[in-house]
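Suppose a colleague, Dr. K., hands you the sequence of a protein chain of 426 amino acids and asks what its three-dimensional shape might be. Before reaching for any lab equipment, you can write down a predicted structure in token form. Begin with the sequence itself:
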Amino acid sequence: MRILIVGGGGREHALAWKLSQSPRRPQLWCAPGNAGIASLATCAEIAADNVPVLLEFARKQNIDLVVVGPEAALAAGIVDAFQERGMRIFGPTREAAELESSKSWCKNLFRKHNIPSAGFRAFDRFDDAARYVERTPHPVVVKADGIAAGKGVTVCRTPVESMAAIGAAMKDRVFGKAGDRVLIEEFLAGEEVSVLALTDGQTIAMLDSAQDHKRINDGDEGPNTGGMGAYSPAPVFSEELAARTAREVFVPIVHAMREERRPYKGVLYAGLMLTRSGPKVLEINARFGDPETQPLMMRLRTDLLDLIDAVIDGKLSKADLEWDPDPAVCVVAASGGYPGEIKKGLEIRGLEDAGRVPGVQVFHAGTVLKGERILTAGGRVLGVTAKGATHSAARDAAYRAMSAIQFDGIHYRRDIGLRAIRSPAV
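The predicted structure, expressed as tokens, is then:
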């Protein structure tokens, strides 16, 4: 089987790594890929949202299956375009992916179908949003409506902070078109957890839980990022909570999308806040999360290719998900200055030493191969991921590997996974 993976980050490296282990021995391509993916797949320098060129490439290479990683490609309608030509592709259509590409559309769907989430107001004009936050009790959460690579969310403790966040989105255009509209949401307190599920539009198969670390600095300080690390499973997410989440979140979403005539097939990612009144949805993504995918793929025993086929063919009810009970921890190495301005083209050293640590897999995110050197090429550079008998053992291995890696300005959090060690299972 010939498979094209669309994307070039840590998520796509983890997906390629897992697909390469299929007993069916697929031949892999990736567009655009990165230096790590290049060891598993043939990489093509095609942007993930350049749908016409990807279509032509897939046709010329006789690709049997396309697996879509990033949200930008889904929002660009890549699934619709490939399906119209009778080609197999894994992911939701453009209309279904609006669950992620428009937060206001998603929140209105939740309101209509009574799916638990934070209260909100949406604004298209800066002045209206500014007047609202002036008279609204704080804290609140300000969100850019569109896709902002995980950076368009700001928790604001005061009206002054809210004004700054609204201005950054709507006046300074730091998120581009994604900030044309902003949402002002109720602040929810509790433990945050990431839960992903596969669905073929009829059946839902929940993946094991994970917890992400979105802030740039230790102690959850600093601005939001695309994710500075993750671990799986999340001890705080009990079987009871998993059953409740399936019943109150995933099942209603899949039913709602069918009612809206936007049937959903692919991955649903729910960022949840475990409040005193139960789980509430913070965000919905229409694809695998990053960096949650890295520890999840380390722990997944079931053939990922079988699961993807089951989703596409509407046979997910016949699929079995099996997990390695050992936890996995992913620590992200970022470029200095991330999530702001960064330098690219810095040589990365110590990758071989890191990869020799038992239980470790180094997933590449923002990297590029120049001759025999691997250079930085993005904000999030690597996801050093380790599996161990306990969360503590996995965490120790990941940091032992990370200590071997060097590049100018390297930045990573030192507290990834501590919450799992300190939080007893519920």
